[in-house]
Design brief:
Strand content: 35-45%
CATH topology: Factor Xa Inhibitor
Number of strands: 8
Number of helices: 1
Structural class: mainly beta
Radius of gyration: 18 Å
Number of domains: 1
Shape: elongated
Strand order of the largest sheet: 1-6-7-8-5-2
Distance between the termini: 13 Å
């Protein structure tokens, strides 16, 4: 079953507890990418092998990239301020993505994890809006609820 992405909220907390997420909704979110999860492949092929032999390495939660309209000074966009705070302080935060949109239309499926803000890029141009991209490096993996 496909989910509509319109209305999906992304929450960020400057603590590592997901109980404080409601106050940190990242406003004006245009889109997101991730978590880009993966695991390395370890080649264990030897001279007695008749084909490649492999093991799977440690799971990596990857990263999330957020695309947004830049509005960090507005009081209702506390999440954007919290992202900047964590980048500057080099502190870990907690995120939650509510798949399926707002509470009324929510599917109950969520992506929850912890990470560090590793990038924040603000862009602007003639006859255009001020936009931003934020990169979060996930630490410890993610939890996908059903």
């Amino acid at each position: 079953m496909a989910y509509e992405s319109q209305g999906i909220p992304f929450y960020w907390s400057t603590t590592t507890s997901n109980t404080t997420l409601d106050a940190g909704r990242v406003g004006d979110l245009i889109g997101f990418s991730g978590p880009s999860q993966s695991a390395n492949v370890i080649d264990i092929t030897n001279l007695d092998s008749t084909a490649k032999e492999k093991l799977v390495g440690v799971y990596d939660g990857g990263q999330i990239t957020l695309n947004l309209n830049w509005a960090a000074s507005h009081a209702t966009y506390l999440g954007q301020l919290k992202l900047q705070e964590c980048l500057r302080a080099r502190t870990k935060g907690c995120f939650l993505i509510e798949l399926g949109g707002t509470a009324a239309a929510s599917t109950g499926k969520t992506v929850i994890g912890k990470g560090y803000v590793t990038g924040l890029n603000i862009t602007g141009s003639v006859d255009n809006k001020v936009a931003g991209d934020v990169t979060i490096a996930i630490t410890g993996g993610v939890s996908l609820s059903t």
